[in-house]
């Protein structure tokens, strides 16, 4: 999950003076917040609705939290960025409304980095959505193994704790229950212990 969040930020070239919107308050979205912070992002807006998760997002470096969706969410992010939108959007959901949200909150010339596996087969990429405002669309499956040498030393040194996303444990025999709890949002991420 940390490698995937980091991949989203790397593909979008997050760095100092970057403003970032992270769409999704699941484990990958929260670790995208952590990654954006570690890469020096100046403003990190987390779009999420679950207070326990967005509180962890703030701990990981989110400067703002936006719970609204649709036009209200877009307006709120635009308000927080002086009307411009953010340089980067890290989309960690994979549903069409999240993609539409990303298009609405990214500034002209910005980057949308998608690591949420798309659960839709078509999305606007033409002139009014991406081509006209010169938006870069990137992302995809994370080569998480390639990031281990970069990320693991700070985890082992205690400088970061991406493991805070594990808020529940189950035994191997109870894996189905763990998935149910994540699906009904009573657990963020479940750790399986033999």
Would you kindly provide a brief summary of this structure?
Helices cover 41% and strands 22% of the residues. The protein is α/β, with parallel strands linked by helices and 194 residues long. The chain folds into two domains: 2-144, NAD(P)-binding Rossmann-like Domain (Rossmann fold, 3-Layer(aba) Sandwich); 161-194, no CATH class.
The CATH superfamily of the largest domain bears the name NAD(P)-binding Rossmann-like Domain
N/C terminus separation: 21 Å
Major β-sheet, in short? 6 strands, parallel
Succession of helices and strands: HEHEHEHEHEHEHEHE
Rg over C-alpha atoms, rounded to the nearest angstrom: 16 Å
Strand segment tally:
8
Characterization of the model:
- The chain has 194 residues and is an alpha/beta fold.
- Helices cover 41% and strands 22% of the residues.
- The chain has eight helices and eight strands.
- The chain has a six-stranded parallel beta sheet with strand order 3-2-1-4-5-6, with helices on both faces.
- Helix 8 (175-183) links the parallel strand 7 (166-171) and strand 8.
- Helix 1 crosses helix 7.
- The longest helix has 13 residues, at 144-156.
- The radius of gyration is 16 Å and the shape is globular.
- It starts with a helix and ends with a strand.
Write the layout of secondary structure elements.
Elements (H helix, E strand, L loop, with lengths): L1 H10 L7 E5 L3 H12 L4 E5 L3 H10 L3 E3 L3 H11 L5 E6 L4 H10 E9 L12 H5 L4 E4 L4 H13 L9 E6 L3 H9 L5 E5 L1
Parallel strand pairs: 1-2, 1-4, 2-3, 4-5, 5-6, 7-8
Helix pairs in contact: 1-2, 1-7, 2-3, 4-5
């Amino acid at each position: 999950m940390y490698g995937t969040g980091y991949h989203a930020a790397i593909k979008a070239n997050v760095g100092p003076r970057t403003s970032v919107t992270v769409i999704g308050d699941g484990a990958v979205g929260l670790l995208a917040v952590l990654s954006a912070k570690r890469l020096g992002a100046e403003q990190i807006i987390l779009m999420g609705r679950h207070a326990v998760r967005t509180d962890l997002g703030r701990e990981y470096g989110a400067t703002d939290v936006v719970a609204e969706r649709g036009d209200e969410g877009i307006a709120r992010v635009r308000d927080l960025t002086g009307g411009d939108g953010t340089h980067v959007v890290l989309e960690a959901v994979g549903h069409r409304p999240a993609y539409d949200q990303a298009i609405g909150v990214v500034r002209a010339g910005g980057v949308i980095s998608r690591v949420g596996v798309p659960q839709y087969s078509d999305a606007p990429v033409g002139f009014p959505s991406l081509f006209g405002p010169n938006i870069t669309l990137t992302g995809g499956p994370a080569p998480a193994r390639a990031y281990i040498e970069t990320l693991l030393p700070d985890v082992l040194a205690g400088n970061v704790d991406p493991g805070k996303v594990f808020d529940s444990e189950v035994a191997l025999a109870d894996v189905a229950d763990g998935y149910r709890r994540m699906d009904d949002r009573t657990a963020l991420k479940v750790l399986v212990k033999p």
